[in-house]
Amino acid sequence: MRIGIDRDRCIGAGQCALTAPEVFTQDDDGFSSLLPGREDGGGSALVREAARACPVAAITVRAR
């Protein structure tokens, strides 16, 4: 899968990092980012749920 984070839309709510902490983290400014090596989701079943949990729909998940 391909994961995208719209950094202009992200408000730093952290729902993605709470839902799928093995894939998402928050940077020093509090905005969402992917953990190194997790650009493909690392096989986590929670990536799509993390995208749905984002209150501003800043995360997109697409099949490769």
From TrEMBL:
Which coenzyme or cofactor does it need? [3Fe-4S] cluster
SUPFAM superfamilies tied to this protein: 4Fe-4S ferredoxins
What UniProt keywords apply to this chain's record, in alphabetical order? 3Fe-4S, Electron transport, Iron, Iron-sulfur, Metal-binding, Transport
Domain 4Fe-4S ferredoxin-type intervals: 1-29
Task: Write down the InterPro entries for this protein, in alphabetical order.
Answer: 3Fe4S_ferredoxin, 4Fe4S_Fe-S-bd, Fe-S_cluster_ET
- Note the superkingdom of the native organism: Bacteria
What protein name is recorded for this chain?
Ferredoxin
